[in-house]
Amino acid sequence: MQLGELKKALKGVFVVQITPFNKDGSLDLEGMQANTRWLAERMSGKDFVFVPMGSTGEFYAMSDDECQAVVKMVVEEVDGRLPVIAGTGRAGTIETIKMCQYAEFVGADGVMVVLPYYHVPEEEGMYQHYKLVAESVNIGVMIYNNPATSGSWIKPALMAKLSKIPNIIAVKENTTSIGGYYLMQRAVDPKDAVVLCGLGEQMFSFEAVYGCPGFISYAANFAPNLSYSIYEAAVARDFNKLAALVNSMAPFFSFMAKVSIDHGPDTAVRGSEAEAAMFISATKAAMDILGLRGGEVRLPLTGINEQEKVELSSILRAMKIIQ
């Protein structure tokens, strides 16, 4: 997909794919392929984008070889029907470039690069990081502006400067502040890059008022039609319907909050934007219940128990995600 074509396609629902693991902890590549095929068959022809190897995909707990195998398989399985934006971020610039170049080599349409984590760079270092990454490939780059996982945040003025680099064409914006999103969207010229909602259906329902073109979703792994209906309501500017659809997800959100408490306490630093990751375990369990391949999580994450899976099954039935 050419860069201009890709930029136009960056709207709608972006499924940040889970990575299934077997009971012994090994990568279930066959399961990943089955999940990808299931989604591609249902969402072909719609505004839908595949994002393998994001945070929800547990890339940080996987070897480079495993990450590369997943990206290659997803590109081959989707086979050009829908865009594929591969997560390729690493803590350092050199290793990030290697992963980006591999994604380009196997045919990904673009890459998603999370902020360099562990050491927090100065603004000049952040700029040079993304400039070198973008110049190392000839495909689109989506910056993953995620303070929760990196401890840093690219402010609107710097993002506007970065968006002038020709193939930096999108920002997955994970600020939990509506005001922060508004300032970011105002700062970045839409002709340079699109500013997407990185925090799913609920946050998108607020940002859609300001014309947010799409959102990244983990729920789309098991409920793509519901996620897409939320996007369609936003496009139609039917905010009553949008609110009703998001409210229909409340039982699942409440379940995840309960599970996080029951499995807690977590180890997040209070006052930070770090978030507990039990939603990954709940998403995988939901996929298993639907007959997909959710599989296990890898340590340091832990899964939900059998009693919680029974409760989740009832919730999914009440939400009409399963019959």
Walk me through what this model shows.
- Helices cover 47% and strands 11% of the residues.
- The protein is of the alpha/beta class.
- It has one domain: TIM Barrel (Alpha-Beta Barrel).
- The strands form 2 sheets. It has a 5-stranded parallel beta sheet. The protein has a 3-stranded parallel beta sheet with strand order 2-1-8.
- It is globular and about 50 Å long.
- The termini are far apart.
CATH topology name: TIM Barrel
Largest sheet entry: 5 strands, parallel
Instruction: Assign the CATH superfamily.
Output: Aldolase class I
Mean pLDDT: 96
CATH architecture: Alpha-Beta Barrel
Question: H/E order of the elements?
Answer: HEHEHEHEHEHHEHEHEHHHHH
Provide keyphrases for this structure.
TIM Barrel; 323 residues; alpha/beta; 8 strands; 47% helix
Concise summary:
The protein is built from 14 helices and eight strands. With 323 residues, the chain is α/β, with parallel strands linked by helices. Helix 2 (29-43) packs parallel to helix 3 (64-78), helix 12 (250-262) packs antiparallel against helix 14 (306-318) and helix 13 (278-289) packs across helix 14.
Helix-strand layout with pairing:
Elements (H helix, E strand, L loop, with lengths): L2 H7 L2 E5 L12 H15 L4 E4 L12 H15 L6 E3 L5 H13 L4 E5 L8 H13 L4 E6 L1 H4 L5 H7 L5 E6 L4 H10 L6 E4 L2 H8 L6 E4 L6 H12 L3 H9 L2 H13 L15 H12 L16 H13 L5
Parallel strand pairs: 1-2, 1-8, 3-4, 4-5, 5-6, 6-7
Helix pairs in contact: 2-3, 4-5, 7-8, 10-11, 12-14, 13-14
